[in-house]
Input
Amino acid sequence: MYSLFWPVVACALLTIGALTVLRPLAHRLGLLDIPKGRKQHQGKIPLIGGLSVFVGVSAGLLIADSTAFEHWAFISCALVIVVLGALDDALDLSVAIRLVIQSLVAIAMMWLLDLHLAHLGNLFALGPIELGWLGPPLTIIAVIAAINAFNMTDGIDGLAGSLSLLTMLALTFFMLMWGQQDTALLPILMMAALLPYLAANLQCFGLRKVFLGDAGSMLIGLTVIWLLLQGSQSAESSFRPVTALWIIAIPLLDMTVIMIRRIRKGQSPFQADREHLHHISLRLGLAPRHALLFIIGLAGVGVSIGALAEYLLLPELLVLLLFLAVGAGYYYLLSHVWRIVSTLRRRRN
Ligand SMILES: CC(=O)N[C@H]1[C@@H](OP(=O)(O)OP(=O)(O)OC/C=C(\C)CC/C=C(\C)CC/C=C(\C)CC/C=C(\C)CC/C=C(\C)CC/C=C(/C)CC/C=C(/C)CC/C=C(\C)CC/C=C(\C)CC/C=C(\C)CCC=C(C)C)O[C@H](CO)[C@@H](O)[C@@H]1O
Ligand SMILES: O=c1ccn([C@@H]2O[C@H](COP(=O)(O)O)[C@@H](O)[C@H]2O)c(=O)[nH]1
Ligand SMILES: [Mg+2]
Output
């Protein structure tokens, strides 16, 4: 196992350093988030959180082992995503360009490390369901889905940072418990970088606010799917593929359900709006910090169900059906939320 002390310390310190150095450069780089339309924050906020996390994590990986091909492969793919996200933050790129580059990164990931969705696990207790030639296209879809699911959570202070912190904590736990100690380095470094970012994002200790930007939320999504594939698809896997769904339950459900709802309303599924779980929580009257705690609480329940199902080795089909049932319930609740709220209010009066 890698020695963790210096990589983690360097990662945290370099993230703090990058947050400090990049803040005054944000204006010149065009990386300021200016409130308008659906962007309802106060003031011009530097979009430098993601770049800083990237600097810290890359340094941590190289300090741990600069000869590891796997580390260079991750840094290269992450660099492409971070540059794409930063260009999008500064220039608003088209959806097509973003999807093409994200697909190319998925292909690079498969080509460099053979990291892909090869099987869905032992869903029918007849042995692993091998995907064969379907694996690579499904991997591209999973990479695009994870990147965009985490991007979509980045709509209120602290949410994308805390959800990814929880996901990284869960992945570290699974990997340390079930035999992938070396693989756990990446989620541990992500946590070391995300903590200083979150402190700034939530303005703790008098720090000034920064956002992740699409560079950061897309970097998180890429790292998550990278680790889900390493954790569930390699020879010494730490968890079963179906558990991956629970580890990212809230971002995955939010994205899937919002896309279904947009299509049913006759809109493009890729049309940005303020109908995500965090927006609805605010409109229900929760203060931003309460909405944050509420959603993190839900995500914590999801991760705990995944961990318990893994620990008890519940049948994979049952765990998948439970996830789909929760997804259907969530879809129903969100589609009827205002009717439910007004009925409850009428009954109370
Ligand atoms: C557009 C938008 O919303 N914008 C936001 C955002 O604004 P921002 O400005 O930042 O961004 P932009 O607007 O500029 O937009 C950026 C994005 C784009 C334009 C591109 C959009 C792209 C997408 C939305 C992605 C498209 C998604 C797909 C193509 C595919 C969908 C795929 C899945 C859902 C599955 C993915 C799975 C994984 C990721 C995990 C896989 C990994 C494993 C190891 C597990 C595999 C093992 C298994 C056993 C799984 C097997 C599974 C099955 C076969 C069973 C089926 C299960 C599933 C498919 C899982 C999903 C099921 C459910 C969830 C259940 C649901 C059930 C019911 C409903 C009944 O942010 C702003 C701020 O917030 C915001 O305002 C703005 O709107
Ligand atoms: O920490 C955060 C992150 C985001 N927001 C708000 O969400 C939008 C999201 O921007 P996108 O360009 O759609 O990614 C951002 O402009 C902020 O208004 C936030 O308040 N806090
Ligand atoms: Mg975004």
